[in-house]
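3.2 Worked example (two chains)
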Amino acid sequence: MPFPIEFITRTRTLLGGEFDQLLAALEMDASTSIRVNPLKGNDLVPERGEFVPWCANGYYLSGRLPFTFDPLFHAGVYYVQEASSMFLEQAIQTYVTRPVRCLDLCAAPGGKTTHLASLLPEGSLLVCNEVIRSRSAILAENVTKWGYPNTVVLNNDPAEIGQTLSGIFEVIVADLPCSGEGMFRKDVGSAQEWSMDNVRLCASRQRRIIHDIWPALKPGGFLVYSTCTYNTEEDEENVHYLIEEFGAEPLAIPVQEDWRITGALRYDAPVYRFFPHKTRGEGFFLALLRKPEGRERSVRLKSGRKEKGKKALPIPKEAFDFLSRANDFSFAWDGNFLRAYLKSFMEEYGGLDRSPLRVLSSGICLGEMKGKDFIPSQDLALSVCLNPDAFLVVDLAWEDAIKYLRKESFALPEGTEKGYVLLRYQGFPLGFAKHLGNRMNNLYPAEWRIRSSYLPEERPRILIDSKFK
C-alpha cells in the first residue's frame, strides 16, 4: 500500500524506531471484531473467536465473515465494530455510575451509540445525532435493530444542539470527523486522500465542533474526545487546547499493561492511543475530560408533546399487550403512528418534540393505523421490550430468513393462521408479515432489504450458544 511521503516522514518522527513496526502492521490484514447485544445475545459467543480485553461483550473473529447473510446480524443480536473503539467502555464504566442524559454527537453509523445503549446505567437517556441526513438514516436503522427504548435519534448541526439544549447532558461522546490515518489499512482510499492541509482542516473543525457543543454539557459533566488518527494536531494538541480554553480537567482511565495502549506523545496528559503494531485493532485515540463546575444556565425542557394533525385516535386495547413492561410506558399518536414512550423520560421527549431540532425517532413506534387496520412496525419487532406472546410466531429456517430479509415472498407453514405474524430466526425476531391464507405480504422495510444476489453455499455460523462452546 503506498502511503503519502509526508505522512511517512511525520509519523516516523513521531514514533522513532517503532515506525517500521507500524508500517509492517499496516501491510497486514485488519482484524475483524464484533460486539454482542447483552439484552439479546447474552448467552451467545463466536464459534471461533477471542475476547476483546477491554470490552465485556467484544470478540475478535478468525476472519471476515459474510455478515450480510447472517439473520442474527439483522436482528440486532450483534454489531460489527472495530475493537479499538470498544475502549469507550472503560471510560464510561469508570466514571458514569448513575443514570445520566448522554449525547453521542457524531454518531453514524451507530457503533458507539449501540455500545453506549448497553453500557449506560439503567434509567439513562441516550440522544444520538448525525448531521449528514443520509448517514442519519443508517444511524436510525442500527439504533432500531439494537432495540433499546431509551434512545432518541437527531439530525442536526452541533451548534443547533448546543444552542437548544444548554446544560442538559451529563455525558457527551464526540467521536470526531478526522483525517482517518488510523483506518488506512481498512480504507485504501483514505490514504490516497491524506494531506497536511486536510489534517489542519480536521483539527480546526474538531475545535469548532467542541466549541459548538460545549454549552450542552452540564457543569461537572464528562466529554469523551476521540478520533481514528495518529497525528498530535488532531489528538493531544486539541485536548491541550480544550484544557487551556475551557478549563477542562483530563481524567485518567485504568488500563492493563498487557493491552499495550500508548500514552501521550506530546503534552503531559492522560490520553489513550491505539497503534496496530502494539494493540490488536486499528488506530484510535481517546481522552476523557470533565467540565469545571459552575453556574451556567441550563435550559428547562417543556413537558408534553405537540399535538400533530387531526384529533388523536383512541389507543387500541391490544397495544398494551405489545410490550413486556407496558406499565412503564405512555402511549401517544404521532399522526397515524402509535408510539410508546418511557414514562421516566416524558420531560425530555416533550422538550425535544417542542424544540426546533429534527427528531428522526424517539420511543418505540408500535405501528401505523391504515383505515381500520393496525399494522405493527419493525421498531416493535426488534425492540427488547417486545412481548412475543402478543403475536402469532413462526420460526424460519435460514433459507426463508434470507428470503424475508430480501423482501421476497415465500410460503409460511401449512396451517398458519391468517393475520399478522412475527417471524423469527433461532428465536430472535426479524420482523412482521401479514398472512392472507394463500399468500403472505412481506412487511420488512424496503430500504433495509438485502440487495446482493449472491448466496453463500451454507449459512454463516458466527454465534453459537455458549454452553456448546
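3.2.1 Second chain
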Amino acid sequence: MTLNQQLCLQRRPSGAVCKGDFCLTEAEIPELEDGQFLVRNEYISIDPAMRGWMQDRESYFPPVQLGEPMRSLTVGRVEASRHPSYSVGDIATGMLNVQTYAISDGFQMRKVNPEIAAPPSWLGGLGMPGITAYFGMVDIGRPKSGDTVVVSAAAGAVGSIAGQIAKNLGCRVIGIVGSEEKCKYTTDVLGFDAAINYKSEIIVERLHDICPEKIDIYFDNVAGRTLDSILPFMKVFGRIPLCGMISSMSGRPTRLANISSLIANRIRLQGFVMSDYVSQLHMAVEKLQAWHHSGQLIFKEDVRTARLEDFPEILNDLFSGKNKGKLILQIANT
C-alpha cells in the first residue's frame, strides 16, 4: 500500500514560519476515477506568495485553511492514469501542493518536455517566475529601446528574468540586490548595467549617480521602503509593474512618504498575477524558451533536496535572501 504524505497548515504563523505551524500527515491514496491521473511530486516550488497564503485574509487566492495541505506549484511524474491526455511517465506541472502524491483531473495542469529543459526549470524560468516576469515587463512595463529600468530583488527568480528581458529589448537595466556577491552576479553573469546593494548602500544616493535622467520602468518585487525610495526618481508617465511585496510579507507594511509622486508624475502602478494571462501562457513560454536557447536568458535554480517537514526552514531562506536563484525543494528519496 502506497501512502501519501502531506504537509498541512496547523496554525497561522506570526513572523517567520516554523515547523510547529505545520503537521505531517499520511493517508492512503484513493483509487483513480475516469478522467483522473496520479502524479508523484518530485519538485516543489518555494515562493514568496506562500507566506501570504497562510494568512486569513482575502487575496487573489483564498487562504490555505487550517488542516489543508500547503499550497504550492510542483513538477512530478505521472504514475497512473485514467485521463485521455496524460500517460504514465509524462512530466506534469501544476498546483499540486506540498505532498508526495496528488490526483488531478488536468485542470490548470501542463505537460512539460524534459528534453527542452530540466524539470526544475519548469518551476523557474519556464514556469511561474519566468511567465510572471515576461508579462509584468512586456505588458505592464512596456519597455522601449533606450529606457532605463530598475528591478528590485534582481537576483531572485522573477527579478533576474525581468531584468534580462528588459536587456533583450534594448533597455539599460539596474538591479537592486542584498549582497556584493549578488551585485556581481547581476552585472557579470546576467548582463545588467549596474547594481545597488541595498544593505551597504543608500538607494537614493546611488540613484542620483546612476540614473541622472530618472527611471522609465521600475519592476517591483519588494514594495516597502525600496518602492518609496524609487518613486521620486520615476519619469513622467513612468510604469511600475507591482509583482511582489516581500518586504511586508512577515511584518507591517511600510507607509509610503512619496506616494504623491504617482500623481505628480502620472505614474502607472499596476499589480498583477500570472493567472491574469492564462490564455497567453503558451506565447510567453515560447518566447522565454527561444531566448534561453539562444543564450540571451539565463535560468538559475537553487534546488534543496529535503523532506517535506523541512519546508518551513527552506521558505525562511527565501525571506532572508539566502537563496541563489529560484528556490525549489526536491523531495528526498524520489
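3.3 Remarks
The chain has a mean pLDDT of 94.
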